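Any chance you'd type out a single protein's sequence alongside its tokenized fold?
>
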Amino acid sequence: MPVRLIVGAFVLNSGLSKLKGDEEAAEQTHGMAQTAYPVLKSQSPQEFTRNLARAEVALGTALILPVVPSAVAGAALTAFAGGLTGLYLRIPGMREPGGLRPTTQGIGLAKDTWLIGIGTALLLEELGRARAKRRGRD
């Protein structure tokens, strides 16, 4: 639960901050995203950032609320973090040439890969518990 609370609070805060953000911040967020994912060019910066903020608020809330199963929260976090990791892998200048080591600019995005590990751990832990419970019944 502590991991869910910490990560959930961080993601929730990020979403709430984006909802309060200005046009310049929306353009910067959208610009980075569309560099990695060109399909996002069709959305306006404000629309994209508002949708991203809503997703972050929903994810953060799901992580914080104990009624949401860890498998569900973990799967959602893993998917979300996969998108963030795509930014790191696709935006030029985030990695050292020829490898995965982050540049100084890329450290912030590289840290998002930890969320994949956290989300996967939540998911696997819940699946392991369900499997152990089934074995106990057999």
Q: What stands out?
A: The chain has one domain: 2-137.
